[in-house]
Design goal:
351 residues, alpha+beta, twelve-stranded mixed sheet
């Protein structure tokens, strides 16, 4: 079918109910390819997610509609982070329904993404691909992108969790109670500690980045609140365990999980991090054990815990492997030079 049979137009957060239904249907179709056994995302969650995107993440979204204008057959977006760091890059994603692939629809969306990046003076485009959709990697190679980091979504079956191991890690953590306070937040961060929590969240910069051309990010208290608005608009409870050095009153480390009542069997393990001066003492294991112990006691619905890890993150993989996490989905982070992408698009137009 000729690409002229399709119409590409911007998708606004104030879109109609019918447009949101089409968006939700498209994203769930793609999601089934990546996570074939997961339940779908409800319509309300899709709507709230788009309407509460943090202001520092400037999102532009385009939908490719079929001839009848009742189905989104392809979707493309680009995010420009309005932050002090990494002003050279833009993040993007393109998804195309299987039956509409290899018809040039992804390339048409890429041209819009590249034009935004050019106007914003962003010289680098970044995205990720999943092994379940091999066409994604083929597309990235075609446009001249390079694989910057290989990673996996790793999964733990709660039924396989060794209760004795959790008990041992908790008992080992108890010996540090004279030095460290183990605390817990359910939901929003406390306002009086927000600046210190922002510094704690910057432990994400300790994760391996491979060959990715990314500089350290420094999340601000305001950005933390904006992220919370998006999180809680989608009714996603967040649990945080943290450690405080009792002598100096400073955070030593933390771990977080996100749970979605709409997908109650799944728990997302987010960041776990310990400041360098406190490492190699088992504090990360203590934090992980405290979280899993609470999940076992208070969220019996959870059957699987998922987390994302760079394949080169040996320290975290050692902990996760001991807990019983296993590879669930291979992923890759890619980067493409904008000028190379523009050259590719021009060459395609000249054919």
């Amino acid at each position: 079918m000729s690409t002229s049979a399709f119409q590409i137009r911007s998708f606004d957060k104030n879109a109609s109910q019918a447009e949101y239904i089409a968006l939700n249907r498209h994203t769930n179709h793609i999601r089934r390819e990546r996570y074939p056994y997961d339940p779908p995302i409800p319509l309300d969650e899709t709507i709230q997610n788009l309407r509460s995107i943090p202001p520092f993440a400037d999102l532009k979204l385009w939908a490719t509609w079929n001839a009848d204008q009742n189905e989104i057959v392809a979707l493309g977006d680009v995010i420009i982070l309005r932050t002090e760091e990494n002003q050279h890059m833009a993040q993007f994603e393109i998804t195309v329904l299987p039956e509409y692939r290899r018809q040039g629809l992804g390339r048409q969306l890429l041209s819009r993404i590249a034009e935004v990046a050019r106007q914003e003076n962003r010289r680098l485009l970044m995205t990720n691909t999943a092994a379940q959709i091999p066409g994604g990697e083929a597309f990235m190679l075609r446009i001249g992108a390079q694989k910057g980091l290989e990673a996996h979504t790793n999964q733990l079956r709660i039924a396989d969790l060794d209760g004795d191991l959790i008990g041992n890690w908790l008992a080992r953590g108890q010996q540090y109670l004279p030095e460290f306070e183990l605390g817990f937040w359910d939901g929003a961060y406390p306002e009086e500690q927000l600046q210190e929590i922002a510094e704690l969240s910057n432990l994400t910069n300790q994760q391996p980045l491979g060959d990715l051309d990314i500089k350290d990010m420094h999340t601000t208290p305001e950005q933390l609140r904006q992220i919370e608005v998006n999180l809680f608009a989608r009714w996603l409870p967040r649990w945080t365990f943290y450690l405080v050095d009792r002598v100096i009153g400073k955070f030593a480390g933390y771990t977080e999980t996100i749970w979605n009542p709409n997908r109650a069997e799944l728990l997302r393990q987010d960041m776990t991090g310990v400041f360098p001066q406190y490492r190699n003492r088992g504090l990360g294991r203590w934090l992980k054990a405290a979280m899993l112990d609470k999940v076992l006691k208070e969220r019996p619905q959870v059957k699987f815990v998922r987390t994302g890890n760079a394949d080169s993150n040996a320290a975290m993989l050692k902990i996760n492997n001991a807990l019983g996490f296993k590879p669930y989905m291979a992923e890759a982070l890619w980067q493409a030079d904008l000028q190379g992408v523009l050259n590719y698009l021009q060459a395609c137009n000249e054919l």
